[in-house]
Design goal:
alpha+beta, about 220 residues, about 15% helix, 2 domains, single chain, three-stranded antiparallel β-sheet
């Protein structure tokens, strides 16, 4: 996989050694170029996206199996939901709410048992993408390429710029914020925020940075 250099820092001030300031950026600030693996052949590749007013325009082309994905496609985990009255007694609503992992084919109906008469009926369901259920890109649900397990938890990133932001956070001994409750850093897993895991996080980020450079 060809290495893509991160874009400029978009006007952000130069980091101060030992200090990290949360500038309020959300995770979507890094979602314009995401290192992924093909859901069919596992070949590394890139999801490329551009933000137009009110929507993303996105594309993925696999260099291994030539699969093509465009805006609106989804191959990741989904939530299957549906409801209907019992087909036998009609006095009880039957509900289905199931999570289906990526790569698993889901049927158009699921059986549900009535609590009134005890008989099962098939319920028509519809799929809703689960965009934060797995380490996957938010546009298509493709598995991420930059994933690193640690003894404290799972680390993942979209691209080199995302990794650099996490590295600056990891090495900082002073972390400051102005209360950006929707920022990426405010929503990091708790293990990443703990001081005792600072070196662990730093080393995991550096392993992913090396993997990205090696292609």
């Amino acid at each position: 996989m060809a290495v893509q250099r991160p874009p400029g820092r978009r006007g952000r001030p130069a980091p101060v050694p030992g200090r990290h300031f949360d500038d309020g950026r959300g995770l979507n600030a890094f979602a314009d170029r995401i290192a992924v693996r093909c859901h069919r052949c596992d070949t590394p590749g890139w999801v490329l996206a551009s933000w137009q007013p009110y929507r993303w325009t996105v594309r993925f082309r696999c260099t291994g199996c030539s699969v093509a994905l465009d805006s609106g496609d989804w191959v990741g985990a989904v939530c299957m939901q549906g409801r209907r009255p019992c087909g036998y007694c009609g006095h009880q609503w039957l509900y289905v709410h199931r999570r289906i992992a990526s790569g698993v084919r889901s049927p158009a109906t699921f059986p549900a048992r009535c609590g009134q008469c005890g008989r099962s009926s098939d319920v028509d369901v519809s799929a809703t993408p689960l965009r934060d259920a797995e380490p996957a890109d938010p546009h298509f649900g493709l598995p991420l390429h930059l994933v690193e397990p640690t003894r404290a938890g799972l680390l993942w990133a979209y691209n080199a710029e995302h990794l650099q932001a996490l590295h600056e956070y990891a090495v900082a001994t002073l972390r400051e914020t102005k209360g950006h409750h929707r920022s990426m850093f405010s929503r990091l897993p708790q293990w990443m925020k703990l001081a005792r895991h600072r070196v662990l996080l730093q080393r995991a980020v550096e392993r992913l940075q090396k993997r990205l450079l090696q292609g």
